[in-house]
Amino acid sequence: MADKQTELTSAPPSRREFLKNSTAAVVGGAMGANLLLSRSAHAAGGDAMKIGLIGCGGRGTGAVGNAFAADSNIKLTALADAFDDRLQGSLNQLKKTAADRVAVEPDHCFVGFDAYEKLLATDVDVVILATPPHFRPAQLKAAIAAGKHVFCEKPVAVDAPGVRSVLATTEEARRKNLSIVSGLCYRYDLPKRELIKRVHDGAIGDILAMKVSYNTGTLWHHGRNPSWSEMEYQLRNWLYFTWLSGDFNVEQHVHSLDKAAWAMRDEPPVRATGLGGRQVRVEEQWGNIFDHFSVVYEYANGTKLFAQCRQMGGCSIDVSDHLIGNKGSAEMMRGAIESTQPWRYHGPKPNMYEVEHQELFAGIRSGNPLNNGLYMARSTMLAIMGRMVSYSGQTLTWDQCLNSTEDLTPAKYEWGAVPVPPVAKPGLTQFV
Q1: What is the mean pLDDT of each run of 10 residues along the chain (432 residues)?
Q2: Which structural domain range is residue 308 located in?
Q3: 280 and 326 fall within a common domain
Q4: What's the CA gap between 261 and 378, in Å, rounded?
Q5: Are 59 and 156 within one domain?
Q6: Do 177 and 261 fall within a single domain?
Q7: 384-409: b or e for each residue (b if 16 or more CB lie within 10 Å)?
Q8: Which among 30, 13, 9 is positioned nearest to 357, based on CA atoms?
Q9: Which end of the chain is more exposed for a tag (fewer CB within 10 A), N or C?
């Protein structure tokens, strides 16, 4: 994850029912998940599951480590990446930390733009999708078509056509009884699950407003090697190109927006208005993304979401989520509710990155795979909507944004020249 980084099939419950019961489903967190894994693994005959990693950067390598920690009966058998050095670096790191879990033969190491297709043709049971977000819709579609269960990193698209593709794939996965577990990890954090359950049960009354912030510093940059083509340079520094990352409010701030969406039971807003720009990161090395956003989302019931994010060095840090109701307030990152009956979370706090994999494998082994596709697509669209209103300077509706025809896909995938669109200018950049 660059920033540090459930619905059941077969007569699925409503989203509201799922959210209400999610904490109970964990059965006390990691202990409950491990118990379920033990029972279902026995029922399945104890067969080891094979996983494949598509996208061998830091987040993908970390996700494999989380999967190893979550289930003792899985093995990594295939890797795919655009670059061989990234693949080999990931493979070497994983061998150092978990050699007995790594069973990747040289003929199961795939490199290039079509590497994911070659990996999906192997006998892996589960794939981890951790390439730059632009590639997520096509790779998710191909994985489900190939009959694989999926752990899908956030965000899941960079434009509206990509979101619509993910929504269609989500339904296909449901029909085929395949898993899609999202890397929107806070949904798997026990303190936040309990807080949201209480909010939905009326602990703060009706939500009147929400304020979410992801104000942080700058992230990595790998520089420019003279031997690299422009395509390679952009892929190696994908955070800074809108076509690859969606801009940082999509790639990073999606976590904050997802928590707000969760509080609103995943109902989309009616409209949004935003502003943003590029004040500090103005040099060529920062591609064509902004360095700050501020967006106001309006919901049909009158609730407003005030969302801001910033990536600038030397500034104060604020990563927080506040819910304000007519009977109290809640702060999600602290696991705290202020009302006539104040509450703090004091229960178990297992690693949420491991819990999401525990529940992924438990669902597969029990025959009740999880499908997070709807909320991960809507939360991604919420972030894309924020970019659209900020880039254009226009107030736009949810339907306008979801039905946008703007497609950020390059003309072709090959190692050569690829244009860099100009930095957006609100009032001049047109909504498409």
Answers
A1: 32 32 34 35 61 98 98 97 98 97 98 98 98 98 98 98 98 98 98 98 98 97 97 98 98 98 98 98 97 98 98 98 98 97 96 98 97 98 98 98 98 96 97 98
A2: 191-348+379-402
A3: yes
A4: 8
A5: yes
A6: no
A7: bbbbbbbbbbbebebebbbebeeebe
A8: 30
A9: C
